[in-house]
Design brief:
single chain, about 325 residues, alpha/beta, Dihydrodipicolinate Reductase, domain 2, 2 domains, nine-stranded mixed sheet, six-stranded parallel sheet
């Protein structure tokens, strides 16, 4: 990008404000699109260069070196298409879209325009998970046989003080729910192990939370080499758990966000603990740094193609749910 970047933040809720702070800290001018002008004065955000009610209004008024799309998932495709057709590189919050067909349309526009997109599956920038992946790929636990990925938390703890009725996560029509919003963990599965052959899943609403989106996902992935992966997602658990455990024929690797450490145990019982003391914002800040470096020879750490692969898993999970949890071939 140019020496002085001017970034348009589309959607100025909590994650939009986080991206704005990180980009401003790195020297970028920041302007905002939001349908609530009161958010332009959010104390959590930096001083803004400009505020607009729509992407189209912003693009008519100014030129931007890049944009961040941080609106509810239901709006991602239309807003990103407008930015791509204006030649504006995009950092797109995950997931790409509410469904695979919409995501494929966006991908066709990106191929047509050749404007870059960096996808925000932020856990790819988390130091402990980068180390876990490196150890897995180096063969430290041999051939992986089984893995469990868990994201379990209570939705009312996400935005304290905000009624759930105002939070897009409570509304299926806006792209809320565990299956889509916590698809981070499907991305981690694909990043760590590649694409499975089959998926089976339960996608349900089981809690008493006043929401109409799914709050419970149990997904099983079957790989041709025998690896079996379980992914559990929910929006009702206290205390929060975010963890990954991988069991191989020569040991096991595990990580838990709440303790910060990565653990490696060999089949002989030798134990290695690697502590990490990163702040959660570090991965968002690393994403911001990579976005500002786009246009150089840096290869994107998370691409639109990666997001399409995640939505292949999401689509297979939905089909499996309609078939009472039956296995579904991924392709």
């Amino acid at each position: 990008m140019t020496e002085l970047a001017h970034i348009l933040i589309v959607g100025y809720g909590s994650v939009g404000q986080r991206h704005a702070r990180n980009l401003a800290k790195r020297g970028a001018l920041v302007s905002v699109v939001d349908n609530d002008p009161k958010r332009f004065h959010a104390e959590a955000g930096p001083k803004l260069h400009g505020g607009y009610s729509s992407v189209e209004q912003a693009l008519e008024a100014e030129a931007f070196t890049g944009a961040v799309v941080a609106t509810p998932t239901a709006f991602h495709v239309d807003q990103t298409v407008a930015l791509l057709r204006a030649g504006c590189p995009v950092m797109l919050e995950k997931p790409i879209a509410p469904d695979l067909r919409s995501a494929q349309f966006l991908a066709s526009v990106q191929r047509e325009t050749q404007v870059p997109i960096l996808l925000g599956y932020t856990w790819r920038w988390w130091p402990a998970l980068l180390e876990l992946r490196a150890k897995l790929q180096s063969g430290r636990i041999g051939r992986p046989l089984r893995a469990e990925l868990i994201m379990a938390s209570h939705l009312e703890d996400w935005h304290p003080g905000e009624p759930l009725s105002d939070f897009f996560m409570s509304k299926a029509a806006l792209g809320g729910g565990a299956l889509l919003d916590e698809s981070h963990w499907f991305d981690q599965m694909l990043w760590l192990f590649g694409e499975p052959a089959e998926i089976a899943a339960d996608v349900e609403r089981v809690s008493t939370l006043p929401i109409d989106s799914d709050d419970h996902v149990e997904l099983r992935a079957f790989y041709k080499d025998g690896l079996r992966v379980r992914v559990h997602l929910d929006l009702y658990t206290r205390p929060t758990e975010r963890s990954i455990a991988i069991y191989g024929d020569a040991g096991m690797l595990s990580w838990r966000f709440e303790t910060g450490s990565l653990t490696l145990i060999s089949t002989t019982g030798k134990r290695e603990e690697i502590p990490f003391t990163n702040d959660r914002n570090d991965m968002f800040d690393a994403l911001a740094a990579e976005f500002l470096a786009m246009g150089t020879d840096v290869r994107a750490s998370c691409t639109l193609e990666d997001g399409l692969s995640v939505l292949q898993v999401v689509e297979a999970a939905r089909i499996s749910q309609r078939k009472n949890g039956a296995r579904v071939q991924l392709r």
